[in-house]
Amino acid sequence: MQILTAPQVSEWLAHVDAVAVMRSLFASFAQGNVVQPPQVLTVLPDMDGAGDFINYSAALAEPPVFGAKLSPYLPNSAGAKVTAWTLLMSSTDGMPLLLCDAMALTVERTAATTALAVDLLAPQQGGILTVIGSGPVALAHLRLAAPLRAWTEIRCWSPAAASRADTIEQVVPGTVVAASKEQATAGAQVVLLCTSSAEPVVDPRLLESAALVTSISTNAPGAHEVPPESLSALDVYCDYAETTPGLAAEMKAATAFGWSADTLRGDLPTLAAGTAPPPERCAFFRSMGLGCEDIAIAAALHAALKSGSR
Which residues pair with 101 in a beta bridge? Predict the structure, then answer.
């Protein structure tokens, strides 16, 4: 078994095409070759219910592997500590293959999942791409989404984006650092929300040009980046229809405004298989993160290690 620290994971991830990994994963998922149990939240003792860990597990037929990512949330007087480690095991002989720090892996698979959704849902003509956020997850979204279309302009905004302009330019040269959220989203066809906000960041109903808005999950309790009441006016997609509507805060709250999970247009397995209908209105894609994404990216990392060590 190989054990990788965070710097080693980041180094080897440069050899992994994460979007291609997610595309292959969800095509395999559609064919019934992925087993995806629900994520399991376990509350830790002696923390007054504040500490916990989430178990993200899955099994893949190709490559024949299974495993889990364990992600704890450990509050203390200095603030909460969040870590994550992934264990990859062989379905052939039951032996462990890889144990690695999963923080960079999680960032990469999260951005790659969104990028796959963009490729499957966004208009082919491109237009303006906007990324809201400027942290590591947002920058990974920027890097992976930029090559997907011939965008007429790429923009980025967050309260801290101006101070990170040099880093943003290094990730995707030519990216415009907008002066405000309103400037960043004006006329945008695709808006990627990549924040840790527990309150709505953007109302898709107010984005007259938007064809697609995406949103990710964070550790903030009840985190949601769009107003729950907006979902009824959108064509809603998600990463996995069996689990996401019961976990995503805005989807749970949207039922009070007449929205139902029965109206979901599709998820990544059906989109990858070509069986989900295309959007007719502004599309909203919500991802919560899946164990199969963690295991698929870990398996790709393990394959890169094996190839590089020969």
Answer: 85
Q: Could you give the C-alpha distances from 78 to 11, 49, 214, 247, in angstroms and in order? A: 30, 18, 32, 28
Q: Which residues share a beta bridge with 177?
A: 156
- How are strands ordered across the β-sheet holding 127-132? 176-177, 151-157, 127-132, 190-193, 212-215, 283-286, 235-238, 266-267
Going residue by residue through the chain, which has 310 residues, state the pLDDT in tens, using 9 for 90 and above: 899 999 999 999 999 999 999 999 999 999 999 999 988 989 999 777 788 889 999 999 999 999 999 999 888 877 777 789 999 999 999 999 999 999 999 999 999 999 999 999 999 998 999 999 999 999 999 999 999 999 999 999 999 999 999 999 999 999 999 999 999 999 999 999 999 888 899 999 999 999 999 999 876 677 899 999 999 999 999 999 999 999 999 999 999 999 999 999 999 999 999 999 999 999 999 999 999 999 999 999 999 999 885 4
Say which amino acid occupies 272: A
158: exposed, middle or buried (C-beta count within 10 Å: 0-12, 13-18, 19+)?
buried
What residue ranges define each of the domains in the chain, with the CATH number in brackets?
2-105+292-309 (3.30.1780.10), 110-290 (3.40.50.720)
Dihedral sign, Cα of residue 104, residue 110, residue 113, residue 115: negative
Helices 103-121 and 291-309 pack at an angle, to 10 degrees, of 110
Which DSSP string corresponds to 219-263? SSTT--SS-GGGGGGSEEEES-TTTGGGT-HHHHHHGGGT--GGG
